[in-house]
Amino acid sequence: MYSKRILFILFFLIFMILIGTFGYMMLEKWNFLDSIYMTIITLTTIGFQEVHPLSSAGRIFTLVFALIGFSILAGSISILSSAIIEWRVIERYRRKKMFDKIKKFKKHIIICGAGRIGKYVILEMLKSKKEFVVIDHEPSYIQQIIKELNLGEKDLYFIEGDATKEEILLQAGIMNAEGLISCLPEDSQNLFICLTAKSLKQNLKVTSFVIEEQNTSKFFLIGVDEVVSGNFIIGKRLALSMMNENILSFLEQVTYIEKQAYYLGNVDVKSHSSLIGKTLKDANIGHNVGLLIFAIKKAGETQYEFNPKSDHIVQTGDVMIALGSQHDLEKLENYINGS
Fold first, then answer.
1. Does the domain at residues 106-236 carry the CATH identifier 2.30.280.20?
2. For residue 269, which of 305, 298, 226, 308 has the smallest C-alpha distance?
3. pTM for the whole thing?
């Protein structure tokens, strides 16, 4: 909308400059440089003296050109000014409306960084249908993602700012958030963001990307829950490509193919679950939901029990891992914790 107005104004200005230039060249037989110089000083009402004495036809042309040209120039400035003011008003209203919606978010995810890694984090969050807010100080990254993913600005909630600052995290609703993902390209930035986030809300689940593996311990030291090492993952995947080709293709299908039918999902057993105290055999998840639970992590533990036995007793805080469609995973959540 605004680009069309600007193009319209530029078109008319160029048109008037061409009319004036060729008018002086035809009527006064001046060269191109003298003609365009006379056109510009007349159109802008600078008022320098004439390049050469004007003929009667040239004076009449100058009078008409000055009146019409000045009117168009003044109108163009007016249109441009109103467009800028209108854009600022609309942008302020849009941002206020977005902030009002963010304030209503509960248990959402905050994504810090919309660069190369952040783009794929955002893509996965869009698939999950979970509410999230993106923070990045570079608006061009956010606009590029909106364009690449064919989104509208209403489909992506974002804040332009420095995620290391408390006020920006507060604007993103960190006090009501469930978790934060920091995926900036520098470990020092990610570390500071995690430290700031944990200082604002200690029970916030924080996951961070780390480039240098030796920095991992520093993240755990400040209370970061999960750390993903880029070099570590790349190294393991390169090795798998040679040693376990079928396993790698399976992982690709489950986690990396954009339009895959199945996802790895987890469900946390809540305190009100009707399955608490029952064995996996009695819970009969496979029959009632159609999914296989292939790993369980007990509350307070860090290791997963793969292929859990049928006599495993379901307890509050258990994390169950399953593979299935998005619909099936939602059914599993409802079956375990109720709708």
1. no
2. 298
3. 0.61
